[in-house]
Amino acid sequence: MKELICSTIERNVVLKCIRDHKRLDLRTIDETRSINIEFRAHPGYVSVTLGQTHVIAQASCRITKPKESRASEGHIRIHLDMSKIPLINLENWKHQEFVQELNGILEQNIRHSNCLDLESLCINSGELVWSIKIDLIVLNNCGNILDCANIATLCSLYHFRLPEVSVHGSEIRVYSSTERRARPLRILHFPINVLFAFFIDGHYTLIDPNSDEERLMDGFFSISMNQHKEICGIHMGGKLGLKKEQVELCKKLAFKKVLELTDRIRQVVTDYYKTIEPITHAQPSIIRIDNDEDEDDDSSSSSESEDPVLIKPEIPLSPIENNVSLLLMPDLDNLSLTDDVSTMIATNVDKLTSDLENDDEHDNE
């Protein structure tokens, strides 16, 4: 975070309030601003406000190839966009550098902390995986964009729903929500970021600084923790060093806020899916079962039984269904038979006819 321009009068007023253990927005030195979380109808779309700082997040997914070194893990990317707001008080207009710094901290807090189980994003090991992208847009900046963007990212991941996928050989099918209920992402923990600001050679410490306090702080200390007291990331900046006692104090204050925000995120997402109207999902058109018995009974049809049999649920197997083509499965009422099945039926009919004729001759004798 770069040094910002501030007038002398504003500097004197803010620093006087800090010396008196007061703040311009009537908060205490260890009190954060109110947080408002709102979800939209689209999964993964969330709007978060921290005081008057406003950030929206949208999660999206696509199927891509995995990395060669991690063939069974998916991807997650975070992109922060601050083009909607002007930052004219940055020295030398280093807007892009400021955005890259915040984006790097978010990448370390979210992606490098392994809060999302990347192996659960694997579709076919070594071939296809899901790639999750979080797009963050800052609509208003009143200080502490980092914490607000961090909360928006976690809410978006926890609110997002991933479509179900089935793989049959080289064919991949992505089910819509009317066929199969989309599944949530597997979130292992919530690495929540808490920002502290230091003033007057580090003698005064504030949590969640606003825009006026950010322009006057001598340094900042950002710590990311989860509910298990595990530190996921630490970032420092400014003109001063910190003592061990100051770091321990920040750690204790941050852990209290982490527990509160973790419960808050879980609760708001749970309440959202309870209040929305439940969607009736139809039965999936195809499912996969094994066909081991048919292979043992008829070794001559081994080439046909190598592929998995796909049928509708709650329908018993029959010789006809065991030879149904995959492309004809969505509607079992209009099934076409393969040549082998037609030949098999014709053979069975001829055999039955010959048996009846033999019975008639025997009766006549």
TrEMBL record:
One of its GO terms (molecular function) is mRNA 3'-UTR AU-rich region binding. Residues 31-163, 199-256 form the Exoribonuclease phosphorolytic domain. It is found in: Cytoplasm; Nucleus. Residues 291-307 have a biased composition (Acidic residues). Its main location: cytoplasm. Signal peptide: none annotated. Residues 284-313 are annotated as: Disordered. Keywords: Cytoplasm, Nucleus, RNA-binding. The keyword Cytoplasm applies. One of its GO terms (cellular component) is nuclear exosome (RNase complex). GO terms for biological process: exonucleolytic trimming to generate mature 3'-end of 5.8S rRNA from tricistronic rRNA transcript (SSU-rRNA, 5.8S rRNA, LSU-rRNA); nuclear mRNA surveillance; nuclear polyadenylation-dependent rRNA catabolic process; rRNA catabolic process; TRAMP-dependent tRNA surveillance pathway; U1 snRNA 3'-end processing; U4 snRNA 3'-end processing; U5 snRNA 3'-end processing. InterPro entries: ExoRNase_PH_dom1, ExoRNase_PH_dom2, ExoRNase_PH_dom2_sf, Exosome_comp_Rrp42_subfam, PNPase/RNase_PH_dom_sf, Ribosomal_Su5_D2-typ_SF, Rrp45. Belongs to the RNase PH family. This is Exosome complex component RRP45. The lineage of its organism: Eukaryota, Metazoa, Spiralia, Gnathifera, Rotifera.
